[in-house]
Structures are given as structure tokens and as C-alpha cells.
Amino acid sequence: MKKKKKQAVAVFDIDGTIFRSSLLIELTESLIQEGVFPVSTRKMYKSAYHKWFDRKGDYEKYIRAVVKAFEKNIVGVNESEFNAVAKKVLAFHKNRVYRYTRDLALCLKKKKYYLLAVSHSPRGIVYEFCRKLGFDKVYGRIYTVNSRGIFTGEVSYYELIEDKAKVLERAVRREGLTFSGSVGVGDTESDIPFLRLVEKPICFNPNRKLYCEARKRRWGIIIERKDVIYRLHPARRGKQSF
């Protein structure tokens, strides 16, 4: 019997890579606007936001501050109330995507790649966002709820989700995939671990730390600015056709 050919994996970060913002940030802001989180929640990341916005601080510090604010205020929130706000966020932002990465995901899907999404935003909202793009598997932070449907503040599988390389290796092993011909797309230094594992790493609109790593390793760098998409560096191995 002929052995079934393994699917190649294509792994994408989502926030800032496909989605033109952060699902976690948009969700947190909406939870405040809807009165689920108190207005005082913004105080926890206001300073980091302004430093980043004024180019005096980095994005990673800002997003970490938002995560901290989210995880503090999610405790005691009803899951159904949370899901109702998440649906509104998805309905409003469903088309807020980058053309290059959206089209790349659709192209790879047609080529029978296994599409894997890895994000540090809540899994539920990431799953719904990625589902319409044809992703096969989605990893994100899983916030636990108790028997009454109330968020406890605990995060399941925290150590696994924090390490995107471990997530990728786990998915390849469990789903019977292959790294042969594999593609990875990310935008910050948190994506470096999984970009090291794939054959065709793509740094999309990278921040400075990822940009420096890409130059050192001769990874492909793609920039999408307004209606222009251009490449800064050739890929590490061979010529890319996407």
C-alpha cells in the first residue's frame, strides 16, 4: 500500500501579522466600553500605550501591560457576557487584515498546506477569526471558567502556549505533519523560536528585534505599507514562489 504523503505545515502568528491590530487589545477596549471591565482598566496600560505611540517605548511592553490588565479584570466575568462582546469585536474587525498574509494563507490552503495559527490572544476569539480563513488548528491562551461559567483568572497550558516553538512541534507530531516545505510567518521576536524551525521563514512588518534576527539569518522580510507590498531580503533557502 502506498504511504500517504504528509502535509506540510504553515504556521502564522495572528496579531500584527494577519490581523492589523491585536485581538486582545480590541477585545479589552470593547470590554471596557461595554461596561464588563471597569474604565480604570485602561490605567494599567495607558502609560505603555503612549510611550509606544510616541515611539519612546516598544510594543512588547505595551502588549504585556494589556495582558496584565486583561488577566486581572477577567476574574469574575460571566463567560456568556464575555462571548457576546467577543462576537461584536469579530463582526466589526473581521476584514481588518493585511492583504499579503491573508492572500498567502489562502494560497497555501489551496496548495494543501496544514494551516496552524499560534497566538497569545484568547483562543476563543482567535479561533473564530481564523476559521473563515481556513485554518486547521488554532492555539491561543485558554482562560478557565468554573462550573457556573465564571472566569477564574487561571490560564490552562500556560507554559506550552507561551513557547510557540513547542506549540509548532506538538502540532506537527500530533497531526502527523512534516517540516519539509514548511512556512512560518511572524512579526515580533516572540515568533523567532518557530521561525527557526521552518524551511521558509517570513518576517512580516517586523519590529526591530525580529528585523535584526532576520538580517543575521538572511530570512525573508516582507513589508506592507498602505497599498504597496515589497521584499527587503531574499529568503534563507532558495527562491520563494509566494
Main features:
metal ion binding, HAD-IB family hydrolase, HAD_hydro_SerB1, 242 residues, alpha/beta, globular, HAD-like_sf, HAD-like_SerB
Walk me through the structure.
InterPro entries: HAD-like_SerB, HAD-like_sf, HAD_hydro_SerB1, HAD_sf. This is HAD-IB family hydrolase. Keywords: Hydrolase, Magnesium, Metal-binding. With 242 residues, the chain is of the alpha/beta class. It has a single domain, classed as HAD superfamily/HAD-like (Rossmann fold, 3-Layer(aba) Sandwich), CATH 3.40.50.1000. The protein is 42% helix and 23% strand. The protein has ten helices and eight strands. It has helices at residues 23-33, 46-53, 59-73, 79-93, 99-110, 123-131, 158-162, 164-175, 192-195, 208-217, and strands at residues 8-13, 114-122, 137-145, 151-156, 178-186, 200-204, 220-225, 228-233. It has an eight-stranded mixed beta sheet with strand order 4-3-2-1-5-6-7-8, with helices on both faces. Strand 5 (178-186), helix 9 (192-195) and strand 6 (200-204) form a beta-alpha-beta unit. The longest helix is centred in the N-terminal third of the chain and has 15 residues, at 59-73. The chain is globular, with a radius of gyration of 18 Å. The mean pLDDT is 93.
